[in-house]
TrEMBL record:
It catalyses: a 1-O-alkyl-2-acetyl-sn-glycero-3-phosphocholine + H2O = a 1-O-alkyl-sn-glycero-3-phosphocholine + acetate + H(+). The chain crosses the membrane at residues 20-39. The lineage of its organism: Eukaryota, Fungi, Dikarya, Ascomycota, Pezizomycotina. This is Putative phospholipase. Belongs to the serine esterase family. Coiled coil: none annotated. It comes from Aureobasidium pullulans.
Amino acid sequence: MSRSRVPPILRPRLTPKYIASSVVAIYVLYCWLWGMPLLSSNLPAYTGPHSVGTIDIESPCDGRKTSDVKFKSNGQPAFLLETVLFSVYYPSIKGAKSDKPKHLWVPKPLSITAEGYAKFAHISNFLTNSIFTVALWGLAGSITIPANVDVPLREIAPSFEFTEHGAGKPEVGNDGFPVIVFSHGMASSRTDYTHFCGELASRGYIVAAIEHRDGSGPGSMVMDIDGSERAVYHFGLGDLDVDDSFDTPELKQAQLDFRQAEIEETVRVLKAINDGSGTAIYEMNPRKEGEHLASWEGKLDMTNVTMSGHSYGATGALQALKGAPCPERPFHGGLILDPGKSSGPLNHDVDVPVLVIHSNSWSKKHSVFFGRPHFDVVKDLVVDVNNRGKAAWFMTSLGTSHPSVTDAPLIEPMLLSWTTGSTIDVYDGVDVYVNVTEEFMIFQKAHRRTGLLALDVTHPDYDSSTNGTQEMPQAYQRYWQIHVAPEST
Ligand SMILES: *[C@@H]1O[C@H](CO)[C@@H](O)[C@H](O)[C@H]1NC(C)=O
Ligand SMILES: *[C@@H]1O[C@H](CO)[C@@H](O)[C@H](O)[C@H]1NC(C)=O
Ligand SMILES: *[C@@H]1O[C@H](CO)[C@@H](O)[C@H](O)[C@H]1NC(C)=O
């Protein structure tokens, strides 16, 4: 039989894509034969002192356009901001029961996410989309996020205390709950970092995790209060009606500008809630959540917000810090996790305290970034912030890999450690980030250096052959190397 008559799917070519699909197929078969669940773990409960609530908020944005680029297929604008969507995680009143079901980790309709991943793999067609949908359903379709949906926000203590591990609790006045805005990475969505966000909420923070509709995620449903829905999928240059002058860097910049607009809209909605418009936000929310938002009035510290992000989201967070704090972006601190290696230049113009953390694999893998080692570019950025008189840190969390702060390792620990080489316990992997984020919040709000942030530089350059230093408290030695820290006074 002539080789060309064999259907293409049966003609193996050893491309990375083919090998990856084969590995997944063998893994699925293995689990099935041995009667193992595809998922070894569900998402764990949060460990902080507060119960955790969550709300999806989608809010109209009067059609702001951040670029004139249109889709090839239908001539519609590619960067039109009709609504903004984010999940809020917050400390809820104790023992509050919800009559709404828990949120699914892969939002409905699941086929949008599946089709989006197929598009990422450049193999989207009816057959592959169906296979991806079934696979995703089997892998993650039943996972729920362990936060209670739409329960009331906790009463703020007369003087809000930060839960500082170990030592006493610093007094920071009664400004409302500290607010963190979080921006996700490439190929992700608002539900990919739920444990990090929910864990912070259990320790007293309000976290708004945005879902970006800039074409960098797998897929998202834009919903309007009139009931209309529009799916936004992953898109690339080939999907856009542009000439040769519009190249990949241009696309990245267009996406980052769109993300910045979404960040600003998120802030606008949170401010409206804090100013007493919670009922209006609820009534305009097509996702029909937020019934208690009226009682959130005055409970959010919207004058002193923290901007954070991971990967592409970290690059976007740095961009959003340009010119901050300002009314649209009232950010007084930045939490920057694995700033992108391929997401365009990093903004150095930062005038607020920042904590930049590299995962171990991000520091370990040497890569050239605009003609220089990526590590050096990030380090210089952090040094620049210190030189401007704002406190800035740069450190590597040992044993982690790029996805350690996401939910993926919690759900698929085996698969993730095989494929990414992380060696840290998966729960510790998220915990180290949450712990140091709390220390950063104490610094941003109370100007106190505690824990890891009270230490000096241990490793001006990353050193893959050692852990932290003997001088560090035991609890930090195996987890951290500090590359840049403010001068101790
Ligand atoms: C995070 O902080 C808690 C409270 O101090 C501590 O018990 C835990 O060991 C820390 N986690 C890690 C991974 O260092
Ligand atoms: C925000 O927090 C900083 C501490 O970093 C503090 O100095 C400042 O007064 C706060 N700003 C506002 C507007 O509350
Ligand atoms: C680093 O810490 C880990 C965990 O404590 C330990 O197993 C390893 O031997 C240490 N490595 C070095 C080079 O000290």
